[in-house]
Amino acid sequence: LDLSNCSLHGVPPGLAKATTAIVLDLTENPLRTLPDGSLLGFTHLQSLAVPLALQCPGGSEAWQDVTADSSSRLCQGQRNPCNSSGELAWPCPENSECVPDGPGLTQCLCGSPFHGYKCLREGTFPMLLFGGILGTATVSLSLLLWGTQRRKAKTP
Question: Per the UniProt entry, what are the Gene Ontology biological process annotations, in alphabetical order (predicted)?
Fold first, then answer.
């Protein structure tokens, strides 16, 4: 994805949809910073070129090779932050596992059959019960409001 020399002062809003990009070039733009999480979901990104004034997202430890020339910085080979090689592994709750979510970013996904807050609930989400209660409450509230507010409606 070549966005070089596009006069970008910030990350374009549509960039979040390009999570399958392998190469991204942001050089020759007056970018001052890359906001945290601007490359969230870019797990396939292997080469990123940014203006020299910017650091590689996630820091140099998120990339295998960081090189700089006179006008740009090239970040290559996105590392998996979940690996415990050299530093502590990312702390995920019990019953979950760490997965990469972009340069220097991680997320913890619940392992099957666990779900919910900190992956403490076992089994599947009770969709039928949840939908039934939500539907009943919605219909009841709608009928109540229709009955009480009907007299205030003007007839044509």
Answer: positive regulation of osteoblast differentiation
